[in-house]
Write a structure and sequence with these properties.
Number of helices: 13
Oligomer: single chain
Order of helices and strands: HHHHHHHHHHHHH
Distance between the termini: 20 Å
Radius of gyration: 20 Å
Helix content: 55-70%
């Protein structure tokens, strides 16, 4: 029995993290290549990872503060660019999902040469995608905190809790990425649907509007979107200086564990047939 076939039966969540730890150097190398490869050939290289969020923030500030004169109903928006900062939090959170889901269906297809190598741990590929997405989000969040400090002259201590808020979100996305990576090998149409899905999830979450803009009886529908809770809690810790909703954190974490396990289990169970399809 080959190592790849044997690994297909190890679909537990413990096996997922054990494999990630055992191949941590490989994951780091591939993630670094993924990040650097995005800007290969450009004049300023990886510096674009800082320039992009700055440009986005400048555009949001102009469009929503000057053109639309939009209001959110919180104290920070009275500061110059305050509304854009609130909006930017939601955009960055959704961008992590968009990057992971956008790459997931072609993750195995785009690395077909690895499938033929029995000794290559295919299960690390979703980790590489997730880490690259988190890296770009971290740069954007760093820019956001610095700009907030310059505009408002203060940064709430609750910012240090942001990694805790994002942890179950990352775990959930790891599971979804694994699931879509496996399905994408057998059902190629998934790659065409993901763009529509991620766009719909952006507008069906309080990214561009406060959750209070939705009538109370319908708000529960937005919380079916995994982006909603993370956006709300990220704004709490980054903007409002409020600690996360710990009850919500517990339920979200439980759901994330289930999704991560299911996604990894499906990936491991289906990987034995990747070579035949490719």
């Amino acid at each position: 029995m080959s190592m790849q076939t044997h690994a297909a039966h190890r679909g537990g969540l413990t096996a997922q993290f054990t494999s990630a730890w055992r191949h941590r150097e490989l994951i780091a190398t591939l993630a670094r290549r993924e990040v650097v490869g995005r800007y290969r050939g450009s004049l300023i290289g990886i510096a674009w990872s800082f320039v992009n969020p700055l440009l986005m923030l400048a555009v949001y500030t102009f469009v929503f503060t000057v053109v639309f004169k939009a209001r959110w109903g919180v104290e920070l928006e009275d500061a110059p660019g305050g509304f854009a900062l609130i909006l930017f939090v939601g955009v960055l959170v959704h961008a992590i999902l968009a990057e992971c889901l956008g790459k997931a269906p072609v993750l195995v297809l785009g690395n077909a040469n690895y499938v033929k190598r029995v000794i290559f741990p295919l299960e690390v590929l979703p980790w590489v995608t997730l880490i690259a997405a988190l890296f770009h989000a971290a740069i954007g969040l760093f820019v956001l905190v610095v700009v907030r400090a310059l505009l408002v002259h203060s940064v709430p201590w609750t910012c240090v809790l942001l990694p805790l808020v994002l942890a179950p979100y990352a775990l959930l996305l790891l599971g979804v990425t694994s699931l879509l990576a496996a399905l994408g090998v057998y059902v190629r149409d998934i790659a065409q649907l993901i763009g529509l899905l991620t766009t719909a999830m952006m507008f069906l979450a309080p990214v561009f509007y406060p959750i209070t803009a939705i009538p109370e009886p319908y708000r529960w529908m937005l919380y079916l979107n995994p982006v909603t809770w993370v956006v709300e809690q990220s704004r709490n810790v980054l903007i409002a200086g409020i600690v996360p909703d710990w009850a919500g954190f517990g339920w979200y974490s439980l759901a994330a564990v289930v999704v991560a396990w299911f996604g990894f289990w499906c990936f491991q169970r289906s990987r034995a047939g990747f070579a035949d399809v490719l």
